[in-house]
């Protein structure tokens, strides 16, 4: 049985491709109005999970309920109430911005008058009104991404699924997109996001799961996960490539935990400045020393022993 109030409910969810198990027993509940994230590197099972939730790929095992219905038997009814933003934009580049929205709206049975009105609202939302009659092909990556999201909203969905929404965008375009998504959340739309960007997960997600190898390694809000699996600060000591291991033993005496990367040591501590001073007193002479706050990248490193971006 689904947890009371859950829009998405999964227990022991499995997806196999031949002998390969891409999703290996995922349990998750997503509440109405929540912004929920699947965080992990490429190949973690995020997109396979999203495709099952969006009724684009049948599950191989386990229980799944979307909007209280079974995707195996109620796929069309579920899809009519979802908005899906795929990892790669699949716009019709020969059509204009307005035409992309209007043609897509007709697939949902909206009248011509209704779809014209909805297209106007969505172009304003996506900051594309001044490009309404421009062809899609020459638009920037950020504009195309905003149009893809606008198109997914044509049917006024209850749940919007976004697979790696800002991959390939420059920092300014990413922040514009985050602002649009935050506005949707304020309007009560439930957001489900996959990402391998820890800053994106921290910006967008009320709650998330960290995925690795098709399994969930941890679940919680970004701040809860950082508090549970990391320290308040991290001291990064960079050394010449190939010389990092020479300093590991000394560094291990200065922090609660030390992670060894090819070009630097990460010292996990609640006082990075004090750890940096202690490192210098202990005779360490790094090329550079940086004190920063812990992030979800550090959580992932703690849980899996490797970086989010391999």
TrEMBL record:
PROSITE patterns (alphabetical): ABC_TRANSPORTER_1, ABC_TRANSPORTER_2
Domain ABC transporter: 8-238
Membrane topology per record: Peripheral membrane protein
Primary location class: membrane
Entry's Gene Ontology molecular function annotations: ATP binding
Entry's localization field: Cell membrane
Keywords: Antibiotic resistance, ATP-binding, Nucleotide-binding, Transport
Annotated InterPro entries: AAA+_ATPase, ABC_transporter-like_ATP-bd, ABC_transporter-like_CS, ABC_transporter_ATP-binding, P-loop_NTPase
Superkingdom as given in the UniProt entry: Bacteria
Family that this chain belongs to: Belongs to the ABC transporter superfamily.
Protein name: Lipooligosaccharide transport system ATP-binding protein
Protein species of origin: Actinoalloteichus caeruleus DSM 43889
């Amino acid at each position: 049985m689904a947890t009371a109030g859950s829009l998405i409910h999964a227990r022991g969810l499995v997806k196999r491709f031949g002998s390969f198990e891409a999703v290996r027993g995922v349990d998750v509940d997503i509440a109405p109005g929540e912004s929920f994230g699947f965080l992990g590197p490429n190949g973690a099972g995020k997109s396979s999970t999203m495709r099952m939730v969006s009724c684009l790929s049948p599950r191989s095992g386990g229980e799944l309920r979307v909007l209280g219905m079974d995707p195996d038997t109620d796929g069309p009814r579920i899809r009519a109430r979802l908005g899906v933003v795929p990892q790669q934009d699949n716009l019709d580049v020969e059509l204009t911005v307005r035409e992309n929205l209007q043609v897509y709206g007709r697939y949902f049975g909206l009248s011509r008058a209704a779809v014209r009105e909805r297209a106007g609202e969505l172009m304003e939302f996506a900051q594309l009104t001044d490009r309404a009659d421009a062809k899609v092909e020459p638009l920037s990556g950020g504009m195309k991404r905003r149009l893809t999201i606008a198109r997914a909203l044509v049917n006024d969905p209850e749940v919007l699924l976004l697979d790696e929404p800002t991959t390939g965008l420059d920092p300014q375009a990413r922040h514009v997109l985050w602002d649009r998504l935050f506005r949707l959340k304020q309007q009560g739309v439930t957001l489900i996001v996959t990402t391998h960007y820890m800053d994106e997960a921290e910006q967008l997600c009320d709650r998330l799961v960290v995925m690795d190898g098709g399994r969930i390694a941890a679940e919680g809000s970004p701040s809860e996960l950082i508090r549970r699996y990391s320290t308040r600060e991290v001291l990064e000591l960079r050394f010449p490539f190939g010389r990092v291991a020479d300093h590991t033993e000394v560094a291990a005496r200065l922090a609660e935990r030390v992670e060894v990367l090819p070009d630097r040591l990460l010292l996990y501590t609640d006082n990075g400045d004090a750890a940096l001073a202690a490192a210098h007193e202990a005779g360490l002479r790094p090329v550079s020393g940086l004190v920063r706050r812990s992030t979800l990248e550090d959580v992932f490193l703690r849980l899996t022993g490797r970086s989010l971006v391999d």
